[in-house]
Amino acid sequence: MSNANSLYQYGTLAMLVPGLFEGTLQLKELLKHGDTGIGTGDGLDGELVILDGVAYQIDGDGKVNELDGDFSIPFGDVHFANFEHLANVHALVKMEDLEEKVSSKLDWNNVFYSVRAHGTFKSVKTRSVHKQSKPYPTLVECAHKQNEFEAEDVEGTVIGYFSPQIFNGAAVGGFHLHFLADDKSVGGHLLDFEMVSGDIKVQKLDELVQKLPSSNDDFMKHDFSNDDIAGAIGEAE
């Protein structure tokens, strides 16, 4: 079991760039390493949010589904929640404002940390994609076919991670945030939001445990030297 300051990551973002989407780890194994996190499913099957030990999938139609332990993933980030209060929100805060507020209050640019913001949102805009079939397309091709969802006046949770730029590729350098409404009406990978009240919490994660799918032949044989990993992640995210 990981400690409270440890980020457990299965797979890498770089794997998804050329379309290595096969689910090679079951959720019940991932959840041994954390009760909070984000990820995606087998075949890039939707966006995942894990809160309080429960995993939810926001599928390509925007429906929120509670997952069982047999659901498999190619990529996921989890940790055990031990957040500290950072700030209260009393006025409208946009997504870029929240990211700036968090980073300006912390001197944590070169470590991983998790962000959790819960409250009332004037608006949220999220995205997800439908499950892909082999032969898998690339991540950028999937991003061009993403489905976007919008909601107004919703209570919910922003959850995600900040990764140092030196780890861009293994993860998303900078912020990678997902959203889940309290009533499970909307969620997904966050594109934008306006938060009007609530609180922001953070948790420093100074240990990275990286697990790679070494039993997957496609991963083991793939040559990443020809992939524009940074460019693809920037375009897709």
TrEMBL record:
PANTHER family in the cross-refs: ALPHA-ACETOLACTATE DECARBOXYLASE (PTHR35524:SF1)
Pfam family, one: AAL_decarboxy
The organism's place on the tree of life at top rank: Bacteria
NCBIfam families according to UniProt: acetolac_decarb
GO molecular function, one term: acetolactate decarboxylase activity
Keyword Lyase: yes
Record-listed E.C. numbers: 4.1.1.5
Family of the protein in this entry: Belongs to the alpha-acetolactate decarboxylase family.
Entry keywords, A to Z: Acetoin biosynthesis, Decarboxylase, Lyase
Protein name as annotated: Alpha-acetolactate decarboxylase
InterPro entries reported in the protein's UniProt record: Acetolactate_a_deCO2ase (IPR005128)
Catalytic activity: (2S)-2-acetolactate + H(+) = (R)-acetoin + CO2
Record pathway: Polyol metabolism; (R,R)-butane-2,3-diol biosynthesis; (R,R)-butane-2,3-diol from pyruvate: step 2/3
